[in-house]
Structures are given as structure tokens and as C-alpha cells.
Design goal:
- The protein folds into two domains: 112 residues, Aspartate Aminotransferase, domain 1, CATH 3.90.1150; 62 residues, no CATH class.
- Helix content is 45%, strand content 11%.
- The chain has a four-stranded antiparallel beta sheet.
- The two termini are 54 Å apart.
């Protein structure tokens, strides 16, 4: 048998009037879909656990949110709301914004089964590294005239080199570009990266 947490009763009671029926609808749907679910408060809003977190709900001033911990395995991208909000159903302002009860219960059953089987959400592929920034001719020429700056530039990581290249090439005028180029070479000769003032 599942458990009910009196803190969630208090959370619902303290929510805005529009939110109370939404939260009650969600809560009952979760218990119907997973009768052994255990309630609890995490990060100051209601969570439902069964072999790990199954789902959570929250209320705000003008909307509610509800989401499955492994939502990407239950609802594909087409099932997400276009309006930004936590969870998979966007900004919920009325019960009609949610799936019908039988659909919601089905989602809960899927979520509970995923936890029971120990299924994990696949990690997102890391972003592909950006290609090496092409060093402009004027920077190459300036570095050839300053050995310490050239050596420092070559030792920098690709992202640190890119920061200098972008800073120089995005100058709006030739005068600004020359000034940035001179400053860049001076800083690099001292072994400083582009944002050295903010580094600790």
C-alpha cells in the first residue's frame, strides 16, 4: 500500500485556488497508476517515489507543473508543450491542460515499471567540440614578431585561442582591430588568456 504525506496535503491547501483541483487530480492519478507509490517533499515540492523518483508536481502563482523523472522515455518530444515550464506538460492552468485520467494513469504505470526494471535515461551525447579557430593573417604576423606571445598562444587550449581570434576579428573598425591586436599580443606575451582579469 502506498503512503500519503500530510505535508503534501498542506502544500495543496496553501496553493492558489486554481491549482488545488489540478494538484488533487495529479495526486490521485499517480496513486491509481502506482498504488504502492510513496509521497514525499523534495526541493520544497511534492514528489512520488517507487524504486526511485517517479514524478513530481509543483504549483506557482499562475500555473502548475508536472513531470516524470524519466519523462524522455515515456513521452517523446512531440508530447511536450511548447510553453516553457518544468516537466513534460508545460504551464498547466486547468485540468484540461493535462491528459485524460486513463492516459495519465498509463504514463504513471510506465514510469513505475521503468524504475522497477532499473532502466536509466541514456546520457545525452556530449556536444561536438568546435573546430579550431582559423588564425587571421594579421595575428599570425604579430605573433611571429613576438616569440613569448607566439609560444603562449600555441600552448593555449583551442577555446582560449578562439577567444582571442573572435575578439580581434569582431572589431568594428580597423583602428579597433589594431588596438585589440596590440593588446592581445601584449597579454599573450605575459601568458595571459583573453579573460585573464576574471580568472582566479
Amino acid at each position: 500500500m502506498g503512503t500519503r504525506d500530510p505535508r503534501i496535503d498542506a502544500y495543496i491547501d496553501a496553493s492558489a485556488d486554481f491549482a488545488k483541483p489540478i494538484l488533487a487530480y495529479l495526486r490521485e492519478g499517480v496513486h491509481e497508476g502506482c498504488p504502492t507509490v510513496e509521497e514525499g517533499m523534495k526541493w520544497s515540492f511534492p514528489h512520488f517515489m517507487h524504486h526511485g523518483i517517479v514524478c513530481s508536481m509543483a504549483s506557482f502563482k499562475e500555473h502548475c507543473a508536472f513531470g516524470f523523472w524519466k519523462g524522455s522515455l515515456i513521452l517523446d518530444a512531440a508530447g511536450r508543450s511548447a510553453e516553457a515550464a518544468m516537466g513534460q506538460f508545460g504551464r498547466i492552468t486547468r485540468i484540461e491542460d493535462l491528459p485524460p485520467r486513463e492516459v495519465l494513469v498509463g504514463y504513471v504505470k510506465q514510469a513505475a515499471a521503468l524504475n522497477e526494471s532499473g532502466t536509466r535515461v541514456p546520457k545525452a551525447r556530449p556536444a561536438q567540440p568546435k573546430p579550431e579557430a582559423e588564425t587571421p593573417d594579421d595575428l599570425t604576423a604579430a605573433l611571429e614578431q613576438n616569440e613569448p606571445a607566439r609560444l603562449a598562444f600555441e600552448r593555449f587550449s583551442p577555446s582560449a585561442r578562439r577567444e582571442y581570434v573572435v575578439w580581434i576579428t569582431e572589431a568594428k573598425s580597423d583602428a579597433t582591430r589594431r588596438k585589440r591586436l596590440d593588446t592581445a599580443v601584449e597579454w599573450m606575451a605575459e601568458g595571459k588568456q583573453r579573460h585573464w582579469k576574471y580568472q582566479r
